Amino acid sequence: MATIRMKPVKTPDLFLECFCISPDVFAGKTPTEISRLEVREGKARNELGDFFDIAGSSGKTAEETDIFIDGDCSRVKYIGSKMTAGSVTVNGNADMYVGGWMKGGSIHVRGNVDSFCGLAMEGGEIQIDGNAQNYVGCAYRGDWRGMRGGTIRINGSAGNDIGTFMLGGTIIIEKDAFIHISTHAEGGTVVIKGDVQSRVGGQMVKGDIYVFGTIEHMLPGFKEIGTVDKNILGQSMKFRHFIGDLGERHPKKKGREIYGNLYLRAS
Amino acid sequence: MAELLIKNGFVVDPSQKMNGDVADIAIRDGTIVEKVGSDAKVIDAKGKVVMPGGVDIHAHVAGPKVNAGRLMRPEDKLFKSPNAQEHYRVEMGFSIPSTFKTGYDYARMGYAFVMEAAMPPLHSPHVHEEIHDTPIIDEAALPVFANNWFVMEYLKKEEIENTAAYVAWLLSATKGYGIKLVNPGGTAAWAWGLNCLSIDDPVPFYDITPAEIIAGLIKTNEYLGLPHSIHIHQNSLGVPGNYKVTLDSLKIAEGVKANNKFDREQVMHSTHIQFHSYGGDSWANFESKAKEVMDYVNTHRNITVDLGCVTLDETTTMTADGPFEHHLNSLNHLKWANTDVELETAAGVVPYVYDKDIKVCGIQWAIGLELGLYAKDPSRTFITTDHPNAGPFTRYPRVIKWLMSQKAREATLDSLKYCSKVIDATDLHGIDTERTLYEIAQMTRTGPAKALGLSHVYGGLGPGLDANVAVYDLDLNNMPTDPEEIEKAFSRALWFVKSGQVVVKDGEITHHGNKRTVWVHAKVRENHQVTRDIQDKFLKNYTLGIGNYPVWDHLAPNPYVIEVDGEA
Ligand SMILES: [Zn+2]
Fold it and tell me: Which NCBIfam families does the entry link to (chain B) (predicted)?
């Protein structure tokens, strides 16, 4: 393994669009070549090296390349987007679209992330030590093809619209979430270990939601069908089992309709 | 005087029966002339193909439904919106490109004129604002008439003269070009949650049939002597077995002769015929009836068609055929927009993915090409994709490639998941016809210009015509063996001269051109009855006053008005 080390040296006035910060792009390039990669700040074209000191070495392939960013990236978008292998570590906060359209490898942000973390992700792992803003693991605006695979773990809490149009994969929020969980989902699993305010599973077709805390307002489209024992993330618990969203179309399997499952921890 | 000389190209211009003759094209002040002086700027076209600027007879490029598509599909722009380049504006989108991208992409393909195929009259100011915002290309728009309360009420009583007076008034009020019919009667029925799936299904409340609306509007069109014929999207679009409805509708034109001073010969233009050439009675036994439909078209000279080729892309469907969009939404469960346009029409928008792994999509793709290959008269059969309904207009070069190369068709056929089922349901696999450059020019230039009654402006390189000239990187004597080279050449013109101005060089935009809006002013005798009826409906039924209805002149700042004397 080889590591490229980046240190922020200048805070952009606007926000930097850094599609290039990915092991796939860095692989096989020298620090000098990497520092010349184009980044956009609004309509202005800049080089990555204008904002970061870049040192170390990259591997031949993405798989053999680690990226370590030592500092604050609160104004840096698209870190690790579309990456297929290797790793990115941010020792600080990051802006929007961390790991968007990611296919493989791993991302670790030691601070907080803004919105759209793991957007339309297909595989790999994202670990956020702090909080996430809105749209964790959701589909791109307007798109009906959301997260398909991989795992996103937020150690803090998250905002609204988590797992919108989700098709597969797992999202784990260790603390609380606000509103709109798995809206329009047709698969995948979302686990909220804390509390959720409302709008859980709206227009959900398929998929699973686990809430360990409370849901302040349940949607009327969900119906309680019993109590189940489940082992989730290594913990065995008793859950109240709801199915829904009954207002949405549902596919049939062997003559039986398939619903979205909402498991709410039994008190 | 701005003079330009395009030298030594292989000129392919069916309007002058030139099939690759090496010749010079001389241009002065935006018009093609016999010759120019020795100071003229010279473009060396030696070894390259020179064609008149393209003419698109049917595309949805401006107006509220196009914009609704843009609004509801931000994902259509994702990774398909290059950052702004030096000489031009930001371009956005794929199936519903921004106005700038629309103008630029047509220009890059060497197109000079585009017909917006369905203008809701009430929203014509929006249509014209967008047309105005689209650079380079000349455009016109067809207002929709076949579900309009005035039209249905007049035609029920067979009042052709009154219908004509109303049509003439509306063309002027909306700066429209001709008479468009979309699902005659069916869209009006949609207001009751119904549809007209055959030409004899009565329209609820109006007590008139689609057949009567079609026949009445043909008569009206020829009564007025408009440059274009009626332009019809028939009933039962996209439904298995609909080819019978298509043939029934085409037969309405039998025996009718064109009456106009614009060299137009047809009395009916039947659009995106691919969507109307379906056999079977369900998606399970869905099959092509391209041969049956084209056999009829081939033997009836007073009909023209455009193809509406499926390009196997993710796209956005949009039509004034409101009930069809509802039906489509129930099939694919994606996003759906629906609107009612007061006394006039309706519209719907639904995204659609023509997936190579779906049998029906493969068959639709094959039907479009079969029609283009079965056509005996390429100058009556035009290349379109019903943009963006069957695919984006930027795929015309790909459609051209498929029509010109059996090898290219077979390669695509092989890439379909249900290749053998598509072969069973269509004839495409057995067709070895390969269209020539001359025929492609008939299908994209001369033919559509003539059908629109615009052959005195577009579609040719004869002296006196508007100087729209495209130079393509194709050597007529040494055509590429790799069909991809054909697609590449037609995607990016080496040069494109629009109204005498060089707007594209090496496939890149160099100038924003001198865009015009073309519309028809039909003069008719004063008709007090119709004037009263219009005032009455604006008082009783419309949500706006008549004074706010017509398109203000400043919304169409560079008009090219075609005068028609409907009194004569
Ligand atoms: Zn159309």
Answer: one_C_dehyd_A
Residues of B in contact with A138 (CB under 8 A): none
Q: How many residues does chain B have?
A: 568
User: Does residue A12 fall inside a structural domain?
Assistant: yes
Q: How many domains does chain B have?
A: 1
Assigned domain for A227 exists: no
User: Does the distance separating the beta carbons of B75 and A140 come in below 8 Å?
Assistant: yes
Structure confidence at residue A28 as a pLDDT band (50, 70, 90): very high
Distance from the CA of B554 to the center of ligand 1, in angstroms? 27
pLDDT per position as a tens digit, A227-262: 999 999 999 999 999 999 999 999 998 999 999 999
Q: Does B281 fall in a domain?
A: yes
With CA atoms as reference, report the closest residue to A122 among A85, A172, A157, A159. Answer: A85
State how many domains chain A has.
Answer: 1
Range of the domain at A77: 2-219
As a whole number of angstroms, the distance between CA B427 and CA B201 comes to 32
Among B518, B359, B379, residue whose Cα is nearest residue B441? B379
Q: Does B78 touch chain A (CB under 8 A)?
A: yes
Query: Among residues B138, B143, B142, which one has the least CA distance to residue B114?
Result: B138
**How close B75 comes to chain A (CA, Å)?**
6
User: Which CATH number do you get for residue A28?
Assistant: 2.160.20
Cβ–Cβ < 8 Å for A22, A88: yes
CB pairs under 8 A between A and B: 19
Pairing of strands B559-565, B517-523: parallel
Going from the C-alpha of B427 to that of each of A4, B119, B417, the distances in angstroms are 58, 36, 18
CB A126 within 8 A of CB A152: yes
Domain that holds residue B136: 52-451
B74:A141 CB<8 A: yes
Please indicate whether, in this complex, the C-beta atoms of A43 and B72 are within 8 angstroms of each other. Answer: no
The CA-atom distances, in angstroms, between B207 and each of B146, B234, B340 are 14, 19, 20
Q: pLDDT digits over B480-518, tens only? A: 999 999 999 999 999 999 999 999 999 999 999 999 999
